[in-house]
From TrEMBL:
It comes from the Bacteria. It is found in: Cell membrane. Involved in protein export. Participates in an early event of protein translocation. It comes from Psychroflexus halocasei. This is Protein-export membrane protein SecG. InterPro entries: SecG. GO terms for biological process: intracellular protein transmembrane transport; protein secretion; protein transport by the Sec complex. Keywords: Cell membrane, Membrane, Protein transport, Translocation, Transmembrane, Transmembrane helix, Transport. Pfam families: SecG (PF03840). It is a multi-pass membrane protein. The keyword Membrane applies. Belongs to the SecG family.
Length: 109
């Protein structure tokens, strides 16, 4: 398994977790926070704590996703240095051989 495949698997997992965390949140005060009871912010371990946890986990997963994407990109670039493209080297076309018309096979009509 290549390094890029490992990064790609981790990116998919983190992206799925990020989707789940964002879907649990509700920007109008609903979501997982509202299912734990009243709207008082003085509760310990209640709505305020859940909202803070969801906000922090969203930022952490988004940052992790960005770092994994950058690392996956660098792993692609690192593996490409071994075999450069012939198009980029300028030696893309093989030498053209000079052929005479006498060397070509005849076609019967």
């Amino acid at each position: 398994m290549s390094t890029f495949s490992i990064f790609l698997t981790l990116i998919v997992i983190v992206a799925f977790l990020l989707i789940v965390v964002v879907m649990v949140q509700n920007p109008k005060g609903g979501g997982l926070s509202s299912s734990f009871g009243g709207g008082g912010s003085q509760q310990v371990g209640g709505v305020k704590q859940t909202s803070d946890f969801l906000d922090k986990s969203t930022w952490a997963l988004a940052t992790l996703l960005l770092v994994l994407i950058l690392l996956a990109n660098s792993s692609i670039i690192g593996s490409k240095n071994v075999g450069e493209s012939k198009l980029l080297d300028g030696n893309s076309a093989p030498p053209i051989e000079n052929t005479n018309s006498t060397d070509l096979p005849e076609v019967n009509k």
